[in-house]
């Protein structure tokens, strides 16, 4: 059985938990609290030298980085797929997911917020504004791209009749947007897509509020 090192409110951890649930793959979960700095301790850094979550321990070794873990799951458990079948739509799905995971999320994660406080004297209100600004900027682009594809509320999930990597990345980031008080009114398509996905059992059963630690 896989061992998953995860933190309840980590967006990257939530992505992997969703993917595992969609694939029907069970894991033994180990809570790594970012608030208590478990990720900075020697025990966890022996598992993941980056000191980040998630990490999975497999029969072949340890794998880190949420999108790499999800792609490995896709390769080793191909059904149900987390991508649309059409190659172009698959590429667009990947682009959407990477816009969240590579562009929006990194500038508002815990390490960045702590650095803003420690080195630049930013208080909680300032770091919240920082996070909200970058999330809104990224969401603006994704809303435009989603509209350009002709996706409409009620049309199913973002790229297929089942959740894909795009939905897996969107829902945790929407959690962050709400946490930082982002005005979501300008993003009605993303709000609708989020509502559609988060009602799926795989998203409900792995949501932060269901997790230990």
Q: Counting H and I runs of at least 4 residues, what is the number of helices?
A: 9
What spatial order of strands do you see in the largest sheet? 2-1-3-4
User: In sequence order, what are the helices and strands, one letter per element?
Assistant: EHEHEEHHHHHHH
Largest sheet composition: 4 strands, mixed
* Total beta strands: 4
Our Rg estimate from Cα atoms comes to: 17 Å
CATH class of the largest domain: Mainly Alpha
Percent helix range: 40-55%
Q: Round the mean pLDDT to the nearest integer and report it.
A: 96
Give structural notes:
It holds the Pfam family GST_N_3. Residues 86-213 form the GST C-terminal domain. One of its GO terms (cellular component) is cytoplasm. This protein has 2 domains: 2-80, Glutaredoxin (3-Layer(aba) Sandwich), CATH 3.40.30.10; 87-202, Glutathione S-transferase Yfyf (Class Pi), Chain A, domain 2 (Up-down Bundle). The protein is α+β, with helices and mostly antiparallel strands and 213 residues long. It has 9 helices and 4 strands.
Condensed summary:
Pfam families: GST_N_3. This protein has 213 residues and is of the alpha+beta class.
Outline the secondary-structure elements.
Blueprint: E1 2-6, H1 11-23, E2 27-31, H2 42-45, E3 55-57, E4 62-64, H3 66-76, H4 87-104, H5 110-120, H6 124-148, H7 165-179, H8 188-198, H9 201-204
Parallel strand pairs: 1-2
Antiparallel strand pairs: 1-3, 3-4
